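Thread: "does anyone have the structure for this chain?"

Original post by V.I.:
We have the sequence but no experimental structure in hand. Need at least a predicted one for the grant figures.
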Amino acid sequence: MISVVMLGASGAVGGQVVAALLAMPELARLTLLNRRPLPGDTDRRLTQHIVDVLDPQSYQHLLAGHDCAVCTLGVGQPTKSDKSEFIRIDKDAVVSFGAACKQAGVRHFELLGSVGADPKSGYFDLRTKGELKEALRAMQFPRLSFFQPSMILTPMNRYGMSQAIMLALWPMLKPLLFGPLRKYRGVRVEALGAAIARNLVGQGAGVETLYWDDFQQLL
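Reply from O.Q.:
Generated one for you, tokens below.
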């Protein structure tokens, strides 16, 4: 049985993680830390709290007693976000959440990131996500899981024409992405959410980085 605290449940992937967790008999408790109220589920295992995601003092007292933490918090369109705002949400807020979880005794921390995240990347967003990974590694969680998908395929277009084109074309690229390129295959948002949830009850220790093939294995 697992007790999970989660930051970022209002996003597309976060919502799927919540749905998958609530369908699992292994779930004992799920605590959501939200910036705004979400449509509530009647499941007695679920509790929501409205917090300031940028201020760990607003939620530190809610973390005790949880075995696992999941963070899917992030800016939806990094290329259209101010750099300082991107760092504040995608890096600083997550580092603070990780530190608060470590202090509270959380043993397994899972992060939704991106394929290509690397502190030496020439791309600002991937470099920032890579720096975040290094900061979490330094906290020395007993188990730390980095989920690094490529294109996340959602049922609905959320960001305009550019995403509509990508959602239409990406599945067609799947046959071309084989061998080392398999990690760049698109993943359905519900499948990614389910994989993140299922990984919480699997065996593991230390730091693990999961890509497309790992998602399929978890499912």
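V.I.: this helps a lot. The radius of gyration is 17 Å.
O.Q.: and The mean pLDDT is 89.
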